[in-house]
Structure formats: structure tokens, C-alpha cells
Amino acid sequence: MAAAENYPADLKYHSEHDWARIEGAEAVFGITWKAQDMLGELVFFQPPVVGATVTKDGAYGEIESVKAVSDLVAPLSGKVIQVNDKLQSTPETINDDPYGEGWLVRIELADPAEADALLDVEAYKQLLVEE
Amino acid sequence: MPGLKRTPLFDRHIALGARMVPFAGYEMPVFYEGVISEHKAVRTDSGAFDASHMGVLEIAGPGTHQGLQQLLSNDLDRIGAGEAQYELMTNEQGGIVDDLIVYRRDEESYLVIVNASNRETDVSWLTERLPQGVDFRDVSDDRALIAVQGPGALKRLGLEPARSFTFAEIELFGVPCICARTGYTGEAGCELVCAADSAVKLWDAILAAGVAPCGLGARDTLRLEACLPLHGQDITPETDPISAGLGWAVALGKEFTGIERLRQIAAEGPSKRLVPFVMDQPGIPRQGMSIVPYGEVTSGSHSPMLDIGIGMGYVESKKGEPGSMLTIDVRGRPLWAVVVTKPVYTSSRKYTDRKGEW
User: Fold this and answer.
1) Do A67 and B283 touch (CB under 8 A)?
2) Is residue A2, in this structure, part of any structural domain at all?
3) How far apart are CA B180 and CA B159, in angstroms?
4) Option in A2, A41, A66 nearest B301 (CB)
5) Virtual CA dihedral for B14, B152, B248, B93, nearest 10 degrees?
6) ipTM confidence score
7) pLDDT (tens digit per residue) in A6-16
8) Do B30 and A88 count as a contact with CB atoms less than 8 A apart?
9) What CATH number should be reported for the domain whose range is B271-358?
10) Residue A100 falls within a domain, yes or no?
11) Which of B57, B106, B184, B286 has the fewest beta carbons under 10 Å from its own?
12) Considering the entire predicted model, what is its pTM?
């Protein structure tokens, strides 16, 4: 069952419809409700390997629906320390719970100050209205 | 959407909450609830598709039969009134201008249903080549076409089973229509052609009978699992029916446009063949990806029934036997796939049924 449209206030947002939840020196990444809605039912997640370096605004993996492929864009830079392996068998979890069980990767932040450049929830919602 | 045409069922699609996309000049539903649930509805019970964007041609009068015989690949002498036949319309080089289904109504009267994307090309091709005096009408804008497909489809509509590729003029839910036992999903069912202004009444009655509305997304994944080619991707004016595995629809013994070249290809054996394949590793093949070293994916997607990537593509003939391993370049990742038998998946037949043979 697809989630209802929502954008949690405790997240930081990237304009490519990715989110980051900052937890001290680490951050969890995922895609927003809008991203999963645009793609449709997700059927495949190609994650980065643990230990890989991700760069803010760069692609760090791929996600596919029946009809479309999309790059995953890193909201922040760092090193991958955990991948949500459950998505290999149940990628539709991203549609069902994009901010919870549908998280994608956990990284060790290279520069926590980068987060200042991300959007807060109000700015992200404004972006959605303008798009 | 500006510049796009709408089918008679447009308002119904919007009311059902469909996601609309441009397709072949029309604004069409890609899904209502979701591609996967709609796909599974057709494989397990029934689904209804608005296919009113397709071209519907009425061709009749003295010279029609012989005229079509000279332009289409299959042998029209093998069907009588009330029977249908799959055809390739080929150019002088044996390339496929379009694939279509003819419905023979009488000795000299045919209904022809063609791909929406090729409607104008086909109308020009046919009118320039059919004999003088043949009455040719493009009635596409006055007709609606609703496909109802799936193992439970006929029961839902209260229709008795009938032989595949036959049709009859009937009244269904009070709507006069042509009910053809054809389709594009690999399942039993029918395709209904009715007057445009009766389409809403027929559609509402079909959905009220418990048939799930399905969009173009499921239509594409269903036809791919069933290994039915899509013109413009798997077959084109640059590819021929023999290489595409459609030799069964080519009457090599009769004369029609492109026959000399097709006889030559059939005699020599095609250098490339269109084959279905199933991924042996996680990853989804997509149209245009390379099959290393000498081939190309023409259709690829996720199979909702098998939950893996599947596709079709042209490979060197010697690599085209079921069981052959292929390497597909999935955005830089070389992934293994295996050539399989047709169909990959329908409710009654699966490629794994015959796996023991290879």
C-alpha cells in the first residue's frame, strides 16, 4: 500500500527529491514521497558497496520502476557504512514507507557543514509547488 | 495536454484517478492503481484496456480480397467470414511497415486494426496500393476499442468461449459491438469494437462486472511476458518477419510485396534472430542496451510474474537457441541472461515448462 503524501520536518532535502536524516556524524539517505510517486512501483535497487565514497550532488546508486530508471543523488558527501539490504528482495518498501523502512544507505559524513546548503521542509515543499 | 487527442473514455480515466501520458498522439492512461497490480489482475482474473487509440479501417468492395492478398504476408484464402488473421505489411525489402490483424466480414469486406503510431502511414500505404474502386474508410475516430483480457474475462462478461481469432457481431450490455477473440496479453478474452458514443456505457458495464481497469503500462509488460512483438521496437521497417520469428505469419508460397527478399532470407537462414531472454542476475534490461557483442535489446522490463528482468532482442542466430547465455550491458554492468522459449509467461504456459529440453 503506497504511503500518503508527506514530508517530515526533521529531514533535510535535496532538490533532486532525495532526503537526508542527520544523526550526529552520520546520515541516512532516502528518496522523497514525490520521487517514489513520480517513478511508480519500485522493482529494483542497485546500491553502492559498503565503503564506497559518495559525493554531494553525485549519483551513488540506481533505482528502477517498471517503466523508468533513476539515479540516486547524494544529498551529502561521505563514506557508505550500511546499505538497506532488505530492499533487494522488497524494493516496494520504498513506496510503502519512504522515510522509514524504505531508507537506502547510511553514511559517515565527510563534512557535516554541507548540510547547510540543503533545503528544509518548507523550502522543499515550495520547490514542489513551483515544479 | 495540449495537442493531444482524447479517446471517448477520457473522462472515465480521469475519474478513476489514472496517471495520463502522451502516447501515439493521444492522452492515455499508463496506470490507475499501479502497473504490477493491473498486470497480475489480467494474469489471474481479468482486466480492461482502452485501446481506442488504435486505427480501425473498413475496406470493402470488389478487388478488396485480392488487393490485400498482394500487400499482406499471411494467406487470406485460409480464413472465411467471421475469422481473423495476424499479418505483417511488408515493404519491397521485406521490412515490416506495420503488424496488424484483419477481420474478414465477407468475401470482399474486411475490418483492419492497426497500430495507433502507424495509422497515417498505413492509410497512405494501403490507399496508394489497393485497386481503384475499393471502398476504404478510416473509421478510427468513430469507434472505440476495449480489450478485456484474462482467464476470467469471458465469464465476467457472460460470454461463451470461442475459437481464438474468430469474431462475431453481438450486443453486449445493450451495446452493439464486434466481439473478436484476439488480444495482446497472451490470455483468453476479447477485443470489443463499438461506436464511439456507446463506449462509456460499455466500459462502465465491463467494470461493473468486476473487471479491473488496466493502463498502457500493464499492456506493455503483459505483451512482453507473452513475447508478442511491439512495432517500432521489436519489429520495424528495417527488420523482417523471418528474423523476428514471425515466419508462421508469412505465406512464402504466395505473391506479395517483399516476398522475393523474404524467400531469400528464409532459404539462407537469418543472420540475426529476435529472441526472448530472462536475466540470470538482478538487473533490468531496457530498450537500446547492447547484447555483447553483436546484439541489441529491443524491449526490456521487469516481469511482474517472475519478479526478474526480462526482454527481447536481436542476437546472432547461433546465439539464439534456448539455453544460450547472453551478456547484456546494463549501464556499464555486464549481466548474464539466458535465451528462453516463448512465451516467457502466460497463465497457461511458462518458459520453465520446457526448461528440461535444454
Assistant:
1) no
2) no
3) 11
4) A66
5) 0
6) 0.87
7) 999 999 999 99
8) no
9) 2.40.30.110
10) yes
11) B106
12) 0.94
